[in-house]
Write a structure and sequence with these properties.
74% helix; 0% strand; mainly alpha; elongated
Length: 152
């Protein structure tokens, strides 16, 4: 069986899109997305870091007194770590991610992680009597999901 050059290229593209869906993004759009993410965290990271540090310092009582307190603390640590290690950079691509596709794959995975852990927050929702830590964590989670939705 012989493949014509154009047929082989089309076959590779079809298989590639099936196995690894490509996000077609121009460098101009990537620059705008990176700028938005950088601006987002230049404003919000201080709040996320403060929340992480204050809940981490109060780990003998604070969050641990809530339903699934240990898992909630793990969620706080994971959010802080993922933001700090993966989303704080001058140029996300290539500094943190090799390609735009890898950046978007991370953002999708991070959003899925945040939404999956909504159950922990819901278990502690007590209306007006909801613990302040849950209210703040939900606000942080919702802001992160909104940011990811905006750039995706």
């Amino acid at each position: 069986m012989t493949w014509k050059a154009s047929g082989l290229a089309q076959y590779r593209e079809t298989i590639s899109n099936y196995i690894w869906p490509q996000i077609n993004i121009s460098m101009y759009n990537l620059d705008r997305i990176e700028k938005y993410i950088k601006d987002f965290f230049s404003i919000r990271y201080e709040h996320i870091d403060w929340f992480y540090r204050s809940t981490h310092q109060q780990r003998t009582y604070g969050v641990y007194k809530l339903k699934h307190g240990t898992k909630i603390m793990d969620l706080v640590i994971s959010i802080h770590g993922n933001v700090e290690e993966n989303l704080i950079a001058d140029k996300l691509v290539p500094e943190k991610f090799a390609t735009p596709d890898k950046l978007f794959a991370f953002l999708k995975s991070f959003k899925d992680f945040l939404n999956t852990n909504q159950l922990l927050l819901d278990a502690n929702n007590e209306g007006e009597d909801t613990d302040m830590a849950i209210t703040l964590l939900k606000e942080i989670k919702d802001d992160l999901v909104a940011m990811i939705d905006y750039v995706s």
